[in-house]
Design goal:
single chain, 186 residues, alpha+beta, Structural Genomics Hypothetical 15.5 Kd Protein In mrcA-pckA Intergenic Region, Chain A, 42% helix
């Protein structure tokens, strides 16, 4: 490079040309919106479902953000995912909608069903022989680490039990829930 070019590179912290400049800094609104969208994507919930979960969480005493994450984690599709019966949230949701999952012996086909502590969730007898569930029984979809402490999982029986409400620290969701609360509090 010529000395003149070096001088210009030192003066400007971006590459030359029409494509050189970077983007503008994100606004506060955009940061909060993206965080909310990230949370929605991780739980595969609609905007309306997330607003309802936020409304329920805001009525709980304590931190609204933590209550929101706990509220979302108690959904049936999220717990099917955490137990290792499903590989993705989309697969867990489909299992529930297609009627493969029973809670306390009764078929439940709503992914938004709120599981309460001491509820037993299992794959229905007529579905256990499907290829998907034989893979799950062998631990094919089990999470990389251990299953969360708030769940008692028996993959051989394709069943699990919610022992207690989860704590925020135990929930493996990447999200700054405070930004989500700030988004909805506007």
């Amino acid at each position: 490079m010529t000395p003149k070019a070096v001088k210009y590179f030192e003066a400007r912290p971006y590459p030359p040309g029409e494509h050189g400049r970077g983007r503008k800094q994100n606004s506060d609104y955009k940061v909060r919106l993206l965080e909310k969208q990230r949370l929605r994507a991780q739980y595969d919930v609609s905007e309306r479902q997330l607003v309802r979960a936020y409304d329920r969480a805001s009525k709980v005493q304590g931190k609204t953000g933590e209550a929101l994450i706990i509220e979302l984690e108690r959904r049936l599709d999220a717990l099917v995912l955490r137990s290792g019966i499903a590989r993705t949230i989309y697969q867990a949701r489909q299992m529930v909608v297609h009627g493969h999952i029973a809670v306390n012996g009764k078929k439940v086909d709503k992914p938004s069903f709120r599981v309460r502590p001491d509820d037993v969730v299992q794959v229905r007898e007529r579905s256990k022989e499907k290829t998907l569930f034989t893979i799950a029984r062998e631990g094919g979809f089990a999470p990389d680490g251990e299953t969360p402490r708030y769940l008692q999982v028996n993959l051989k029986a394709l069943a699990f039990r919610l022992d207690r409400e989860p704590n925020r620290k135990e929930i493996p969701v990447i999200c700054d829930e405070q930004l989500v609360v700030e988004y909805y509090a506007r």
